[in-house]
């Protein structure tokens, strides 16, 4: 896959500038619902950006009034049509289908660079799964979040119930999941789901890009290390996590980036760091 293919997707558009990839959900008339193509295109694009070290930060936003209405009805219909055949084989095939859907958002968590999401309007169903897999979340004043799956007779299965309890109080997660109610922007802010609420999408994107540029100005090795350690400590004990960072530093902490940061500070200039190696080049 070449970089040119990043411009060929039907559900997302991608632009790259200033070491930042801006991925936009681009089906505003359909409320950016997640059709079959989306579940292939998003992880493919994110993994290509990561594997080739094209940028230092990824920002995800969407076009239109709403961030995303979640999984498209057509995906549910296709899912329903597959419920036939011998029960064990049908169940095994469906399990693989769910794992494939989960993989679309695992790509956001597994990328070496931070993923920031800027959401407006409705963040519904699968969209909550998606933003939960991102590193940092921002929203507009009119934003609302809804674990819609419960209301339509199913349990959310693409990451919301696994990641959200690490982001906001468990009691609140349970209330949102059991009731399917909307959580408005100010509640999302006070609970810690989002870092900031902005008056409109234009202001939000402008401010989030400033944050992305600040991140992109740091050593990409240091930032990648931060992401690796924060994700690791979420899933492990403090003792295991301290042992892991000690082992990580024994190999990853080298002097060029440290000296460049210190020299740049003394000389009152912006530091210049090498990008991460592409995964292909490092293999």
From TrEMBL:
NCBIfam families: PRK06142.1. This is Enoyl-CoA hydratase/isomerase. Gene3D superfamilies: 2-enoyl-CoA Hydratase, Chain A, domain 1, Lyase 2-enoyl-coa Hydratase, Chain A, domain 2. Keywords: Acetylation, Fatty acid metabolism, Isomerase, Lipid metabolism, Peroxisome. Pathway: Lipid metabolism; fatty acid beta-oxidation. Belongs to the enoyl-CoA hydratase/isomerase family. Pfam families: ECH_1. The keyword Isomerase applies. It is found in: Peroxisome. It comes from the Bacteria. CDD domains: crotonase-like. InterPro entries: ClpP/crotonase-like_dom_sf, Ech1-like, Enoyl-CoA_hydra/iso, Enoyl-CoA_hydra_C. GO terms for biological process: fatty acid beta-oxidation. One of its GO terms (molecular function) is isomerase activity. GO terms for cellular component: cytoplasm.
């Amino acid at each position: 896959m070449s970089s040119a293919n990043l411009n060929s997707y039907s559900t997302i558009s991608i632009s790259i500038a200033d070491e930042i990839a801006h991925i936009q959900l681009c089906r505003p008339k359909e409320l950016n619902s997640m059709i079959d193509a989306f579940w292939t295109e998003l992880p493919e694009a994110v993994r290509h950006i990561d594997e080739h070290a094209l940028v230092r930060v990824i920002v995800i936003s969407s076009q239109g009034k709403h961030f995303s209405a979640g999984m498209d009805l057509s995906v549910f219909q296709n899912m329903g049509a597959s419920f036939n055949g011998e029960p064990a084989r049908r169940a095994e095939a469906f399990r693989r289908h769910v794992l494939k859907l989960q993989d679309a958002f695992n790509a956001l968590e597994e990328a070496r660079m931070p993923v920031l999401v800027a959401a407006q309007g409705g963040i519904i169903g699968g969209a909550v799964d998606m933003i939960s897999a991102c590193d940092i979340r921002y929203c507009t004043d009119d934003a609302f979040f809804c674990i819609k799956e419960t209301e339509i007779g199913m349990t959310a299965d693409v990451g919301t119930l696994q990641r959200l309890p690490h982001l906001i109080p468990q009691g609140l997660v349970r209330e949102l999941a059991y009731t399917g109610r909307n959580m408005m922007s100010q509640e999302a802010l006070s609970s810690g789901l989002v870092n900031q609420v902005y008056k409109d999408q234009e202001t939000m994107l402008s401010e989030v890009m400033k944050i992305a540029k600040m991140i992109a100005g740091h050593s990409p090795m240091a930032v990648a290390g931060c992401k690796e350690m924060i994700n690791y400590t979420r899933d492990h004990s403090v003792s295991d996590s301290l042992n892991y960072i000690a082992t990580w530093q024994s190999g990853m902490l080298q002097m060029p980036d440290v000296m460049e940061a210190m020299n740049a500070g003394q000389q009152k200039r912006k530091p210049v760091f090498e990008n991460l190696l592409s995964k292909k080049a490092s293999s």
